[in-house]
Amino acid sequence: MKKTLYVTDLDGTLLNQKERINPESIKIINNLVERGMLFTYATARSLVSASVVTAGLSTNIPVIAYNGAFIFQPGTGEILSREDFCQEERAYATGVIRANGICPLVYAFVDGVERVSWLSGSENEGIRRYLSLRRGDRRLRPVEDSDKLYQGEIFYFTCIGEKDELQPVYDVLSKDRRYRCTIQQELYRPEYFCEIMPAKATKAHAIQKLKKIWDCDRVISFGDEINDLPMFEISDECYAVENAVEELKAAATGIIGSNENDGVARWLQEHCMTAQF
Description:
Layout: E1 4-8, H1 10-14, H2 23-34, E2 38-41, H3 47-53, E3 63-65, E4 70-73, E5 78-82, H4 87-99, E6 105-110, E7 113-119, H5 125-132, E8 140-143, H6 146-149, E9 153-161, H7 163-173, E10 179-185, E11 192-198, H8 203-213, E12 218-223, H9 229-233, E13 237-241, H10 246-251, E14 254-256, H11 263-272
Parallel strand pairs: 1-2, 1-12, 7-8, 12-13, 13-14
Antiparallel strand pairs: 3-4, 4-5, 6-7, 6-9, 9-11, 10-11
Helix pairs in contact: 2-11
């Protein structure tokens, strides 16, 4: 029997507008995971942030975080797979960001510990909101100068602000094959996020790795935004939630219920309840 890997995006797909999973969705998915369904999520969030918004969801499943830069075992935090910048790539990306006057959030392992660093006193409204949602997060590391900001083994940059100020960074790095660079408006918010990661740090690449780890034959995915398109392209079936952007709906196998109405879980319930995993 063919084994299927089911993968969902989080924000706008599995999560509701309050950035949580509806209790009914948790109940349905956990029941199916207990029965053997091979399920995971793929998100731009860190494991720490994702763990908060997915509270109650089974932690027995490896998950894809940082847009595919990492595959984690959430119960232990064990890194099953990671993609990194080389030293030259870190230095070049840092130079482009600095040259455009951007003060980013820098994700790195500093002395072997995962940290999120930012330049204290430079916060704009978007960064302040980001930090306010992560109070108590032990990764947070305010620094006093830009040299400290770029310390450690950097694996991800997040630039938050107006689209016009972030666009020059995107224009340069998105054309460089060493990087994967995205720019999009924050869900339900006015600010934009420009995220810079290693070229292989994609949801699609991480899904293919996990498919191999679990020896799966097929992939079925769920999403809502245009950045889910690469994930859709490597899936055997792909479903856009009702609230998805039109471009993603056009690429989807079908349209399912919205994130507010347990669209992903209801589809899984309908199609997997009688399956032999």
